[in-house]
Automatic annotation (TrEMBL):
It comes from Bacteroides stercorirosoris. Keywords: Signal. It holds the Pfam family CarbopepD_reg_2. This is CarboxypepD_reg-like domain-containing protein. It comes from the Bacteria. Residues 1-19 form the signal peptide. The keyword Signal applies. The keyword Signal applies.
Length: 768
């Protein structure tokens, strides 16, 4: 009995020695005393060995459970703020540490860094918290996106375009505001606190493939002047240049952005066509000469923002986009081999586009975590297009096709959204209406005036709730589309339900399912009641009888993280019911290419992305094998296509030096009867970054002699294969120089959650 008592006492003493305690606290900003969300908080041993980590909630709160007795250390780090360390001695019971204030830092500090890229998985989005190493390795918002190596996000190193691996468009936002890529490039990486990656956008975002929302701190005094200049050494006609300026005074912010993208290169085309007439088959082989491709993109915006202590915000933005393309990408000078004849081909297309717009936005926060948001955007599009096509035998008068199009479009977009947050969920509802008038005047081969009225109304309601490890979102929406042209009109109603489910069984394991029914309208150019010659054998014809399309999507994704390895799995099956796809027929001696509502279109996209961190936070490697499968069921054809490939990237950073290398195999898409085979890309870039400036040099496509794209039409009646390549872009030696002049203090900015734009000119072109 005596031995039993001693054993019990020893066990009790041992238990008390490792008693479990709870540490709680709140992280706030030094100046505003408001809670900071998604701040990284780590629990370390007294000699700085990692024990566990967490991030703060929407109010800045954090907690650590099951903390053993003794000494420990807490570190609190947030990009753009000074790191705070708190030593705790002789912990014996639950400890509330109270408010921990973070002070803004104008320079990137050393200190504790997160070794893996912190990613928080949510039902409707991923929340990415850039590490200090990633921020230090970046010069702007777009280069930061490269260092993050996000799954399914593709950045073309040649033109900096961003899209999803399935080809869908990506929408940029800053603090909820839809912005241009130039405004993202103007961002200071040190001001970016997190990026919300909506890889399964909700009903409020419409049909966009993904949304990248940069959450940044806003200055309350002083401002910024910045430039990011990228130009080619080996191809003098290549440049991507951005200039930005901001000035803050109390509650007001004034900003200006300018972008100039230029190309003056030479491309060569090879076309192979097969025309099956009722009584014979004609083969045409076209070998092109290097032909100029030249354009200048000039985009400019002025914005004024008035923010009243997070209660309300007014934002007014004036934008003007201008594009001048004297030599189009489709231009060509070629020799055409047709039987025993050799013809000369000349195809020239020039265009100009001016798009001024005014965006007025207002947001007001109310009691009980409610908010109202309103957005009105007026846009005017003025477009000019001229095309001259000629083909001739030697010493004969050329047969020519000439067309000119003068287009005008006026549109007004209005939108309103109501939000309400609850303890374990939130509700959103809204309505959006677009009214547009299009007037295109055709001359040359066709003399006609086309006028179209378009209206689209969309309403939605969405509820999201969290139940422990399970999240769900239920949504319902309805869309009405209407268009009228020369007394004819179409009207369609589309019901849009959606469901998103996510489950987090463990901290490092995440599952999500997303299913929805949506719809989209035919493009304005396809609705034109116009026939335009393509060449002497082919005609492109519009179809005002096209109907809106219903779209069904099912997506499943899973993520697993463990120390130095992260794995993302993604699979999607989607189906377009009665899709608007191409058709080809033979009529009056010519092949007519038009658009029709066909039976259906199926697509399966599958990819697995593996990220490895072999050496602390200094090196990150991501490899992504992918598989695309398409089934196109037309009214008179069925086509299938399978594409397998791989993408890879390497990011290395040490002190002020950075190195990036990327490689992508060709990604294929099938739509209707057309297979698009995108270019193979690879690049390497070495840079040196300081707080206020950076310089980098690199090479695009160093392992190939030509930069190539291919489009194949597999029509049985009039099939073709078009190859376009440029030796000016393989390889391209690039130099990037950026600088930034910052002054003033910063504080957390209120989010603007709506922004709309209209850039569709609705022109039917006869180009190949």
């Amino acid at each position: 009995m005596k031995h039993m008592i001693i054993l019990c006492i020893a066990s009790l003493v041992s238990f008390m020695a490792v008693a479990q305690n709870k540490i709680t606290g709140r992280v706030v900003e030094e100046e505003t005393k408001s809670g900071l969300e998604f701040v990284t908080v780590q629990l370390l041993t007294s000699d700085s060995l990692f024990v566990k980590g967490t991030v703060t909630d929407a109010k800045g709160n954090f907690s650590f459970d099951n903390v053993v007795n003794g000494n420990c250390r807490i570190t609190v780090s947030y990009v753009g703020y000074e790191t705070v360390c708190i030593d705790i001695w002789n912990l014996e019971k639950n400890l509330p540490v109270g408010d921990i204030a973070l002070l803004n830092s104008g320079v990137m500090l050393e200190g504790v860094t997160v070794r893996a890229n912190p990613v928080l998985k949510k039902t409707d989005r991923q929340i990415i918290l850039p590490t200090q190493a990633q921020v230090k390795a970046s010069t702007n918002g777009l280069s930061l996106l490269r260092t993050l190596q996000l799954s399914r996000i593709l950045i073309n190193p040649v033109d900096n375009s961003v899209k999803l691996s399935g080809g869908e468009s990506v929408q940029f936002r800053i603090n909820g505001v839809e912005v241009t890529q130039a405004e993202v490039i103007a961002l200071n990486p040190a001001d970016i606190t997190k990026i919300e990656y909506h890889d399964n956008p909700g009903l409020r975002y419409g049909n966009v493939g993904a949304v990248l929302d940069y959450i940044v701190k806003r200055k309350d005094s002083g401002g910024t002047i910045a430039a990011d200049l990228s130009n080619a050494l080996s191809a003098n006609g290549y440049g991507e240049n951005n200039l930005s300026a901001k000035y803050n005074y109390r509650k007001s912010e004034f900003s200006a952005y300018a972008y100039w993208g230029r190309r003056d290169l030479k491309w060569t085309r090879e076309n192979y066509e097969t025309f099956r007439f009722p009584d014979n088959t004609l083969e045409r082989r076209e070998i092109g000469k290097p032909t100029p491709v030249k354009y200048d993109d000039l985009n400019f915006s002025l914005a004024y923002n008035l923010q009243d202590d997070d209660r309300q915000m007014l934002n007014v933005t004036l934008r003007n986009n201008y594009n001048d393309t004297p030599n189009s990408f489709s231009d060509r000078e070629s020799s055409l081999y047709q039987g025993e004849d050799i013809l000369s081909i000349s195809d020239r297309l020039s265009s100009k586009l001016r798009v001024p717009s005014l965006d007025v936005y207002y947001q007001r926060k109310m009691k009980n975590q409610q908010s109202l948001t309103f957005n009105v955007v007026g846009t005017y599009l003025n477009s000019e297009n001229t095309r001259t096509y000629q083909e001739s035998l030697p010493e004969e008068t050329p047969s020519a096709v000439y067309s000119s199009i003068d287009g005008k479009k006026y549109s007004l977009i209005t939108e309103g959204i109501y939000d309400k947050k609850f303890k374990n969920g939130k509700f959103s509802g809204g309505i959006k209406h677009t009214q547009a008038y299009l007037s295109n005047e055709y001359s040359g081969a066709v003399e006609e005036q086309v006028e179209v009225n378009i209206a689209e109304t969309y309403a939605f309601a969405e509820y999201q709730r969290n139940i422990k490890k399970f999240d769900y979102t239920l949504g319902i929406g309805a869309m009405r589309t209407y268009n009228s042209q020369e007394g004819k009109h179409n009207e369609t109603y589309i019901f849009k339900p959606s469901v998103r489910l996510s489950y987090t069984p463990k901290e490092n394991l995440f599952f999500r399912y997303n299913g929805y029914i949506s719809g989209y309208s035919p493009s304005l150019s396809d609705l034109n009641d116009i026939s335009q010659p393509i060449d002497l054998l082919q005609v492109r014809r519009g179809n005002p009888g096209l109907k809106s399309v219903r779209f069904y999507s099912n997506t499943f994704s899973a993520s697993w993280m463990h120390k130095k390895v992260a794995v993302d799995f993604f699979v999607r099956y989607s189906y377009d019911h009665k899709p608007v796809m191409e058709s080809t027929c033979f009529e009056n001696g010519k092949f007519v290419r038009t658009m029709e509502n066909h039976k259906g279109f199926h697509r399966i996209n599958l990819e697995t992305s593996v990220q490895i961190l072999p050496w602390k936070e200094y090196i990150a490697i991501r490899v992504t094998p992918f598989l695309n499968r398409y089934i196109s069921r037309g009214n008179t054809y069925t086509h299938t296509h399978t594409n397998f490939g791989v993408r890879g990237s390497l990011m290395a950073a040490y002190k002020n030096w950075t190195f990036m290398a990327e490689m992508n195999t060709s990604n294929h898409t099938l739509w209707g009867e057309t297979i698009t085979k995108e270019e193979k890309l690879h690049s390497m870039m070495l840079g040196y970054n300081k707080d206020k400036w950076s310089v980098s040099a690199g090479v695009l496509n160093p392992f190939t002699k030509r930069y190539e794209q291919e489009i194949e039409n597999i029509s049985q009646l009039a099939g073709s294969r078009q190859v376009a390549f440029s030796t000016n872009l393989s390889p391209v030696f690039m130099v990037n120089v950026s600088f930034r002049l910052d002054f003033g203090r910063t504080y957390k900015s209120q989010n603007k959650v709506l922004n709309n734009s209209d850039t569709n000119a609705g022109i039917l072109s006869g180009k190949k």
